[in-house]
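User: Hi! Is it possible to get a structure for several chains at once, not just one? Here's what I have:
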Amino acid sequence: MTVLTAARPAPPSTARIALARVGVELRLFARERQQVVFSFAYPVVMMVVFGSVLGGDVLPGGVPFPQYFLAGIAATGIMLTSFQAVGTAIAAEREAGQLERLQLLGTPPAAYFAGKAGQVLVTTAAQLALLLPVARYGYDVPLPLDLGHWLTFGWVAALGALSGTVLGIAVSALPGSASSVTTSVSAFAIVLQFFSGVFFAFPELPGWMQQVAAVFPLKWLTQGMRSAFLPEQAAAFEVAGGWEHGRTALVLVAWVIIGVMVCVRTFRWRRADG
Amino acid sequence: MTTTEAAPLPIATGGDTPAVEVRGLRKSYGGKAVLDGLDLEVRRGECFALLGPNGAGKTTTIEVLEGVRRRDAGEVAVLGEDPATAGRSWRARIGVVSQGEGAGQALSVRETLDHFAHYTSTPRSTDELLAAVGLEEKAGTRVARLSGGQRRRLAVALGVQGRPELVFLDEPTTGMDPVARRQFWQLVRDLRAGGTTVLLTTHYLDEAAELADRVGVIAGGRLVEVGPPAELGAPLRRQATVRWREDGGWRAVPTETPAAVLRDLLAASPRGEVPGLTVTRPDLEDVYLQLVTPAGEPR
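Assistant: Yes, the chains can be modeled jointly so their relative placement is included. Here is the combined structure:
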C-alpha cells in the first residue's frame, strides 16, 4: 500500500454520492424486515379495519366511509415512510456512529439528505402501490377517476413525502437518545393524525383542532388526497367549501422550505459537539 | 518539538512541512481544561503515538486535528491546512479509522467497501483492501456477524480506502484479544512501510513502543515528553536504585552512579557479602507512570 502524494482529482460530486446513498438506503431498508412489514402493512391493516368496521356507513354527500378514509390512510402511510422513518433512522444512525463516518469522509450534507429523500420516494411509491389495490378490490373504493385526478394524487403524495422527509431530518436534531427521539416522533405523529382528520371526518372536528392541524402538513396532505379520491360534489363538504389546491401546494412547499432552513442550521453529524 | 512562543504557521502544502503541527492548543468543557496548551509535531512518514491515560486529552486532540471539534485557542496545521476551515479536498487526504459503524449492520463487508468507494475519487480496489486487512473470507458476511477484531479491520480498510497521506487511529486496539492486536499491529506497520503518516492514540505502553517511531506522552492536557520509545524519560531512566538488607531492614539508595555506590558499599562490608543486594533501573512502564502522574500523588 503506497501513499498517494501526486495531485488528486477533485472529490466526487454531491450528485454521485447522493445516488450511491439512495442505493444503499434502499438496500438497508429492504433488509430491515420489521421496518418493511410495518411500513407496508400498517396502511393496509388500517384499510382493513376501517373497511370492516365502518364499511356500510355513508358520510354527508353520499361518500362511503372507506372511500373517505382511504385519503387519510394514504396520507398517514406517507407520513410513516417519510417523517417517522427518517426521524427515527437518523437518530439511530447518529448513535451508531454512521454519521460520524460520513462527516469524516467529507460527505456533503445535501448528498445525505438527497439519499434519504430518494429512499423515501421509492418506499412511499411501493407502499401506495400495495394499498390502492387492497382498497380498490377489497373495499370497492374507486381509484382516481382520470389523468387529472392521478396527477393531483402524484403531486400531493410527492410534496407530502418531501415535506415529511425534511421534517424528519429536522426533528432528528432533537436532543436525547435515539429511542427517546423515536418516542417523541411517534407520539407527535399519533396526535397529528387525530387532529388532521385521519380517523374522523375533518369537518366534524372542533374548530380549534382544525386550526392547529392547518399549521401542519398532514391536514393538507389528507385533504389533497381526498381531492384525488372523492367525487367533485364532496368538495362542498370541506371546511373551506372546496379542495384548496393552491393553498395545499403552498403550505406543503412552505414546510419543505422551512424544514430545509431548519435542517441547515440544526443538523448534526454527532450527538454532542463541544 | 517546538517550544517557542506561538508564531503564525506557514500555510503550505509542500511535502516538506510537518504532517501535523500544533502550538498552544487549548480546549475546555464546561470550564474544565482538557487541553491546556498542547504542542505537537508529527513528521511526514513517521508513526507517532500519543500515549496517555484515559482522560488525558488524546481523543480531543485527535478530534481537533480531524476537524470535527472546535478548539478554544492555539494554532493547528494538518497537511498544511487548518482543519477547522479545510474543505473536501483536504479531507480526501486524511484517513480516519473511526470507532463508529460502517453504513449499516445489514450490509456485507464487500458491500460496505463498495459503497464507500463512491465517496473518494481515488479508491483502492475492494479486493486489494480485503486482502490487506485479511477479510477476504469474510467478504460476503454481514457486518452484524463480524467479531470485534474483524470490525476493526474493516474500519482500517475504510480508513485507508481513499489512499490518505495521513491516517488517524484513535485507540485502535482497545478491547481486542492478543492475537487480533498482533495482526492489527502488522497492518499499521504495512501502512507505515507504504509511506503513510500514522498518528495513533493509545493507553497501552507496549503498543506505543511496538509501533511508533516517536511517542508523545500526554498528561493533564499537555505533552510532557516526546521522543523515540527507547529514549523516553532518559533522565528518569539514568536514575538507578541500589538496595540491600542492613540491620534487619531494607536500605535503598537512588543514584545516577550505582557503580560508585557499590564500590563504597563493598569496601564497607567486612565479610565481603551484602545480603539482598540489587541494582535496578526503571523500565519503560515505571518511567511512563512517573511522567503521567502529577507530582505528589501516590503511584
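The mean pLDDT of chain A is 88. Residues 14-266 of chain A form one domain.

User: Great, thank you!
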